[in-house]
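Forum: Protein Structure Q&A
Topic: Joint prediction for protein chains with partners

I've read a bunch of threads here and the consensus seems to be that you should model interacting components together rather than docking separate models afterwards. I'd like to see that in practice. Below is the full input, 767 residues plus whatever partners are listed. Could one of the regulars post the assembled result?
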Amino acid sequence: MKKILFLNNSSDDVKIIISQLKKNGINFRELVTDNRQEYIEALNLFKPDLIISDYFLNEINALEALELKKVKSPDASFIVVTESINEETAVEIMKAGADDYIIKENLGRISISVSEIFNEKTRLKKKVETEKAVEELNRDRILLRKLIDNLPDLINIKDSEGKYILNNFAHMKFIGVDDPETVKGKTPYDFFPEEEASKYINDDRQVLDTGFPIINKEESALQKDTGRRHWYLTSKIPITDDKGNLTYLLTVSHDITQIKKAQEIIAQEKMLLRTLIDNIPDIIFIKDREGRRIMSNRAEIEYTGFKSELELLGKTDIDLFPDETGRRGYNDDMEVINKGVRIINREEDLRDSNGKKIWVITTKVPLYSNEGYITGLVGISRDITKLKETTIELEKAKQKAEESNRFKTAFLSNITHEIRTPMNSIVGFTSLLDDKSLDDETRNSYISVIKQSSTQLLNIVNDIIEISNLEAGIIKLSLQDVNINKMLENLFVQFRVKADQQKLEFVLKPGFKDTELIVNTDPTKFLQVMTNLLSNAFKYTTKGKIEFGYIVEKEQLKFFVSDTGPGILPEHREKIFDRFFRIEHSSNQKREGTGLGLAISKGYVELLGGRIWCESVHGKGSTFFFTIPHHQIFAGKEKKHYDKLDTTACKTILIAEDDYNNYLFINILLTKNGFNTIHAINGKEAVEIIKSGVKVDLIIMDIKMPEMDGYEATQIIKKLNPDLPIISLTAYALPEDREKSLDAGCVDYLTKPVSLESLINIVKKYI
Ligand code: ADP
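Posted by a regular:
Agreed with the consensus. Here's the joint model:
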C-alpha cells in the first residue's frame, strides 16, 4: 500500500484531500505533520511514496521541504497545494523538482494528479525491473555458455529425438567439428562409426524411454581429434518441461584416462609389491593400532597353518598363539604402537602350524600417517631355526672336540703307563733269562710273567688298532651261524676261574635253556663285546654277584651283564661309551684300562645292527645291555655247526713260514691236535711241494717271506689247485693285509701271534 505524507497546518484541508482521494478509490496510508522536525523524521522513518505539501507553513515552506525530500527520500513524489498561485511561483516549484502543483480552488484535480503519479511510478518501476531481468538473463546466458565452453568435460544436449541442440567446445573437439551450427540437428551416427554411435544412442534411448538418468557410467570412447581411445565417466540426465514431458537429454562425460592410467600403474605396482612380499620366504605383516593384522604374506599364512590371508586378517598375536609367545608378541606390538619404539632383529621362538618350535629374528617398526600419527606397524620375521640348530650343533661339536682332546691327552699319559708296565716286565724278565744258573722252575716262572705281559701288551695294541679301524669305518663283518648258548657257556667256564679267585657269585642266565639258539652274526665281534663287558664287571666289582645272559624279545635278542660294583653316575652313563673316557674315582685309580673297551663294544654292537646302553644305581651296581636284531635269530635242535672235528681222518697241513720259531709253535699246536704237517721255508718251496703232487689238505701261508712272498705263492697254488684252502698268516692286524691276502686267493687269515683257539677254530672250519 502506498504511503502519503501530508505537510500541512490545516487539518481541514488534509481531511478534504484524503476524502477526495479515497472517494476516487486510491488506497494509501497517511501521516500528517505541520513542522519541520516531524517532517524530517517522517522522511527517514515513514518513507513516503508521495509528499503533499502546503506552500506556506509556519517554519518551513514547500521549496525547503522539497530540497529536504531530495536528500532524504529521493524516490518519493512531491505535490504542492497552494491558495492561489501566480505563474512564476508555479514555474519555480516545478523547476525545483516537484511533480505537480494544485490550487486549493481546484482541489478536485488532486485525485487525478495522485493517480497519474502513482501509475507512472508503477509503470516505471516495472520497466526498470523487466530491463534488469532481461539484462541478468542475458548475462547469465553468456556466463553459462562461457562456463560450459570452458569446462574440460564433454557436454551436449539432445532433443527428445536424440539430435544435438547444444555442444560445448570440448564435445565439438571430441567429435571433430569447429562450427556449432554444423552439429545442430545431427546425431552421433553422423560423427562416429556405427558400432560406436549405437552404443551412445542405446544409452540415450534408455534414458529417454525410462526417464531414469545414467550416472557415472565408465566407458571408453574414440577421440576424433587424436584418434586415441579415452576413458570417460558419462552421466545422462533427462530434462522435462513444465508438464513433465521429456524434452531434452543432457550428457556430461568426464575424462578419467589419466586417473585410469594412474590406477592401472598403482594396481600394477601393488601386484608387483604383493608378488614380491608373497615370494619372500620371510614372514611379513602389517597391523592396525589394536595389533590386528591388516596384511599377511604367504609365508605367514603357511607358518600359521591357515589357508588364506582372509582367515588371518583381524587377528592379533594373542588370537593366533594361545601360549605365552602370543602375549609376548602382542605386548611388543603395543610397545611399538603406543610408544613409537622400533624393535630391530629381536631373536624369539615361536611354534609353527605343526607345533614345532622355530626360531626367528623379528623387526617391527611403527607406521605413520601423513599427519604424523602412528596408525599401526609393519613387521618382518626371518626363520633362523636351521642357523640356530647348526650353532647349537657346532657348540656341541666344539665341546665334544675339546673333551675328546682332553681325553686323548689323558689317554696318552695313561697309555704310556699301560704300555710301559708290561714292557718293563718283558725287558726285565727277558734279561734275567740270560742267567745260565737259573733252575727250570724259576726260568719257567719268568717265562710265564713274560707271556702274560706280552698278552697284556698285545691287547693294548689291538685295542688301539681296533678303535682306529672302527673310526675309519674299515671293519667288515664276517657273518656266520653262531650257537649262542655254547658261546656263553665257554665264557662262563673261562670267567668262573676269576669269580672263584675274587669270591664273587657268578651266574649264567640264557633265555633259552633247552633249545639251542643259532644266530647269524659275527662271532669274533660278539665274543669281544661279551668279554669286554664281563671283564669290566670283574674289574670293577669287589663283592657280590655277577650275572650274564640274554632275554629273547619279539624283535631282538637282549644280552646283559649285571654286577654289584660301584655303579655309574647318570651323567657318565653315556660318556663311558666314548673313546678314552674313564671315570676318575678313587676305586678306579687302581684299575688298569685305556678307556677303549666300551667304545669298541659300542662300535661292534652298532655294526651288528644293535644298541648298547647301561642302567645303574650308583653305589649298588650296573647292568650293561646290548641287542642284536631279531631277523638274525632262529632256534633249533641241530648241533652240526659245532660238533667236534673228527680228527681221526688225519689231515695234512703245509706250513709256509720262514721264521723257524713261529713254524715250531704252529707245528706243536697242530700235531697236538692230530694233524700231519709239512714245512716250506718260503713261498717258492711251498709251490714246489704242491707241484710235486704231495697230498695237502690245507696251507697256512705266512705273507712276509724271502724269495717268494705269500701273496705270489697263493696266486700260483690257487691256479694249480683251486679247491685247496689257504689261510694267510699276517703280522699285523691291519685290514689291508687281510684284504690283500683274500684277494690273492686265501679263504681266511690268522693274525700273529697265533692263539691255539683261533688256529684250531679256523683249521676245523676249512677241513
Ligand atoms: P676301561 O675299563 O679300560 O677304563 P671301558 O671303556 O671299558 O674302559 O670303560 C670305561 C669306564 O666305564 C671305566 O673306566 C669305568 O669307570 C666305567 N665302567 C665300565 N664298566 C663298569 C662297571 N661294570 N662298573 C662300574 N664302572 C664301569
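The chain has 23 helices and 28 strands.
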